[in-house]
Each structure stands twice: as C-alpha cells, then as structure tokens.
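Milestone M4 deliverable, item 7.
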Amino acid sequence: MLFVFAAAAAFAFVAGGLMLLFPGPRRDTDYLVIGTLATFASLMTIFVVVITGVFRQNEGVFFKRRNLT
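Output delivered:
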C-alpha cells in the first residue's frame, strides 16, 4: 500500500512542478508532456519501492530450490 501513496505523491509533485515550469498559455502537447513525465516518475517510484523490497529479503530475486530427495 505504501507504493500507491508514494506513486501518487510523486505524480502530484512532478506534475505540479512542471505546471510551474512550463510557460503559460499551455497547448495540448504541453499537458501531454507534463502527464507523461509525471506518469514516468510515479512508475519509477513503484519500481524502486518494489525492487528495494525484494532485495531487502535475504533471498533476492532468485529463490533456492528445495531438495526433494
């Protein structure tokens, strides 16, 4: 659940910052770029949270097989 709130906060922060940086009157393509970059930031936030959570475990990405013999 943490990554959902972190992604929403990253989206809002990046979108708000880019709205201030882009000069006014904005065209449709400006909003497209702002939304794309904000979505990229939120997806990267989810990726970082998930990857650090996986590597926080001792096993990492690859899991050991159980010996069935």
